[in-house]
Amino acid sequence: MRLFDNIKIFLNEIERVNTVLIISHRNADADAIVSAEMLKKAIIKRNPNVHIEILFPNGISTKSKRICEYLNVEFSEEVKKDYFQYDMLIFIDIGSEEVLEEAEKLLETEKSTKILIDHHIHQISFLRKFDLVIASSGFSSTCEIVYEIAKRLNLMMNKQMTIALMAAIIV
Hints:
- The protein is an alpha/beta fold and 171 residues long.
- The chain has six helices and five strands.
- Helix 2 links the parallel strand 1 and strand 2.
- The radius of gyration is 14 Å and the shape is globular.
């Protein structure tokens, strides 16, 4: 299946980068938050020296504040100039360009490898903006796809992350 082939490619690419920005949608929900934090942990397991930041344009939803606090997720709400120089930009659970707000400009940078990890269906013209797409509408949430990535790295999830993962899938 192409999804799993692309996960292998992604895991190889992660070893070659120094800086990664994980970007999700405005008013991030549980799926976006858990996906971002679990992906961050998986990337660090593969490449312990990488610098990773998470961007939720305009913050998180009111309902998701608890899950963010529960996992102690650190994130930015504004696009910083240095983000345009990051080696890799990973867009997760975005559904469409409009939900990126000002972070949509990051899709135009040519320096960075751009990756999409998502469970939404997208137009071909949108998918062409990415160097690698790890997506399938066969999953109900993006965090299920990120879990597949974490599984391939034998990432041990603590009780907190396991509970948050289940909550993100159910909500």
